[in-house]
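Just wondering, does anyone understand these tokens?
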Amino acid sequence: MSEAIVNSSGNVFIDLGFSPDEAAILQMRSELMADLRKFIKVKKLTQAKAAEILDVSQSRISDLIRGKWDRFSLEMLITLAMRAGMQVSLRTATWRRGNNSIQPTACSVG
């Protein structure tokens, strides 16, 4: 028995059945967490040094490295990214229900 192959919408959280608004927030959170983990790895920071730079406890860095996304709000992840010296920007997109895809628009916030 074979299942039909379904094209991705471009957002794994939508593909998993989350509503478009919740999926957008989950996507942003996952991307920020990945960028923060990459920052720590590339800089070869210990958890203690990363905690000092990001002004959080070492246990928060442990949660970040272990991907415990449910312990970080979008706002907190943006704050940590800014403390890491990253430029955070928000890009808007239009959800097209007819073809289950997200179409980027020219609008951005930097």
About this structure: Confidence is low (pLDDT under 50) at residues 105-110. DSSP finds five helices and two strands in the chain. The chain has one domain: 12-109. The longest helix spans residues 20-42.
